[in-house]
Structure formats: structure tokens, C-alpha cells
């Protein structure tokens, strides 16, 4: 079951020089490939669309400010069960609760600055890929 998922390496990952480390973990999974990748600074509109479901929550405004605080790496990753797979590599939202061995578990301490976004379902992946890579066929 080949799928596509949207991955964002968040501004903390880029600032801390962890792009290679994180992409390396994704690349080493058998058969997964990077279908598109770009370093870009996100604007308010994109973030409102991307994180729309969280609007009104206490963490929403600081999250958007953080996501605008520096460039992110946006990637499309393709391969067998990649949606569930990248979520497993990332670990749960809270990096302290995340298992060592996962990206968040190995490198994070702060819930907001948890290094990586990965689509959480097929429906989210389709929606998010349209926002970040509208030209992708
Ligand atoms: P996910 O990224 O693990 O799917 P979501 O619940 O969709 O988690 O939340 C989106 C992002 O918002 C998280 O990755 C994290 O950066 C931030 N976030 C979520 N909950 C909190 C919180 O309670 N405090 C601060 N930031 C949060």
C-alpha cells in the first residue's frame, strides 16, 4: 500500500542542524523515497490552513509564531505505509513521553518545539499535500 505523506522539519530542527539526521532516518527505511523537498519560511495563511483544527486552543498562537520563526524543510515522502510509519519514527507529540529511539524522543524536550510534523491519516495527508505542494501530480 504505497502512500504519500507531508513531513515538515520544524524551525527548531533546522536551527539545531538536525535536517540530515532526521531525513537520514526517513531515507533509511526500505523503499521510502523523497518525492519533493524544499526549504521555506511559512506565512500566516499557510499556517492557518495547516493548523486550522487547533484554532482557538491555548497553544495555537504560540505554535503559529514558532512555525514562522525560521525556515522549515517541507518534504513529500512516498512508500509503503509511510503515513503510519513516519508518525512512528517521530514519536508522540510530547517529546518527554516519546520513546528514546524516536526522533522526538531522542532530540526533544519541549512540546511545541518537537522537531517534526507528519500527517496523521490518509485524509490529512491529502489535505496537507494540497496546501504545501499544490503542483504535485
Ligand atoms: P502532532 O504534531 O503530534 O500531530 P497535534 O496535536 O496535531 O500534534 O499538535 C500540533 C502541534 O502543536 C504539535 O506538534 C506541537 O508542536 C503543538 N502542540 C500540541 N499540543 C501542545 C501543547 O499542549 N502545548 C504546546 N504546543 C502544543
Automatic annotation (TrEMBL):
Residues 2-137 form the Nucleoside diphosphate kinase-like domain. Its main location: cytoplasm. GO terms for cellular component: cytoplasm. Keywords: ATP-binding, Cytoplasm, Kinase, Magnesium, Metal-binding, Nucleotide metabolism, Nucleotide-binding, Phosphoprotein, Transferase. Major role in the synthesis of nucleoside triphosphates other than ATP. The ATP gamma phosphate is transferred to the NDP beta phosphate via a ping-pong mechanism, using a phosphorylated active-site intermediate. Belongs to the NDK family. It catalyses: a 2'-deoxyribonucleoside 5'-diphosphate + ATP = a 2'-deoxyribonucleoside 5'-triphosphate + ADP; a ribonucleoside 5'-diphosphate + ATP = a ribonucleoside 5'-triphosphate + ADP. ATP binds at residues 10, 59, 87, 93, 104, 114. Its EC number is 2.7.4.6. This is Nucleoside diphosphate kinase. One of its GO terms (molecular function) is ATP binding. Homotetramer. It holds the Pfam family NDK.
Amino acid at each position: 500500500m504505497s502512500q504519500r505523506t507531508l513531513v515538515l522539519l520544524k524551525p527548531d530542527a533546522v536551527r539545531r542542524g538536525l535536517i540530515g539526521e532526521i531525513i537520514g532516518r526517513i531515507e533509511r527505511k526500505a523503499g521510502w523515497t523523497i518525492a519533493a523537498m524544499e526549504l521555506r519560511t511559512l506565512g500566516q495563511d499557510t499556517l492557518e490552513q495547516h493548523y486550522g483544527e487547533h484554532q482557538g486552543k491555548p497553544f495555537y498562537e504560540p505554535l503559529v509564531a514558532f512555525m514562522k520563526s525560521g525556515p522549515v524543510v517541507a518534504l513529500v515522502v512516498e512508500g509503503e505505509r509511510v503515513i503510519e510509519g513516519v508518525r512512528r519514527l517521530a514519536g508522540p507529540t510530547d517529546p518527554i513521553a516519546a520513546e528514546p529511539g524516536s526522533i522526538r524522543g531522542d532530540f526533544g524536550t519541549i512540546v511545541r518545539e518537537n522537531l517534526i510534523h507528519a500527517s496523521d491519516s490518509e485524509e490529512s495527508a491529502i489535505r496537507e499535500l494540497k496546501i504545501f505542494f499544490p503542483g504535485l501530480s
